[in-house]
TrEMBL record:
The lineage of its organism: Bacteria, Bacillati, Bacillota, Bacilli, Lactobacillales. Residues 6-48 form the DUF4428 domain. It comes from Ligilactobacillus agilis DSM 20509. Keywords: Coiled coil. Pfam families: DUF4428. InterPro entries: DUF4428. This is DUF4428 domain-containing protein. Residues 65-96 form a coiled coil.
Length: 158
């Protein structure tokens, strides 16, 4: 069953991107005559709003599109504000705190070094002689970092 534009009565197809209203569809060129956005500018919210009114009602109230755009901008701003609030809350939650007093006033003391490694000392001694035993002190940096709380003085590792 073919559909026709409510305004100009031309046959509509998917390639003409008709705008659907409560009482039927309107071709894109007729919708543009009444300030409805073109295909590249139309949003899902605008299409949903258009389905809630008749074409005749929209034609007699062309300011509706401005209201719809304003509502969409307000919703977008509200969503962005909620996202920013959630990001800040997550950032605050993940902030490093003292396990004793909960303060965030913390200083880094440094990485914890591993001690003497007997296996490295033996390997170094075999390769270079007695001086190679010093290779046992060439340990990797530890994975833990030591911190000190500036509020209560507690030292802790993370």
């Amino acid at each position: 069953m073919a559909k026709y534009c409510l305004e100009c009565n031309t046959k509509l197809n998917l390639f003409k991107f008709p705008v659907k209203f409560k009482d039927g569809s309107v071709c894109n060129s007729c919708a543009k005559k009444y300030d409805f956005p073109g295909v590249s500018e139309i949003t899902i919210e605008m299409q949903i709003n258009a389905k809630s009114v008749t074409w005749e009602h929209y034609k007699s109230h062309p300011e509706l599109i401005k209201e719809w755009k304003q509502e969409a901008q307000e919703r977008k701003a509200e969503i962005e504000a909620r996202k920013e609030e959630a990001r800040l809350a997550k950032e605050e939650k993940n902030r490093l705190r003292c396990p004793k007093c909960g303060s965030t006033n913390i200083q880094v003391l440094g990485k914890q070094k591993k001690g003497f490694s007997a296996s490295k000392a033996v390997g170094g001694a075999l390769l270079t002689g007695g001086v190679g035993t010093l290779a046992g002190f060439a340990g990797k940096d530890g994975k833990k970092v030591e911190f000190v709380c500036m509020s209560c003085g507690r030292k802790f590792k993370k």
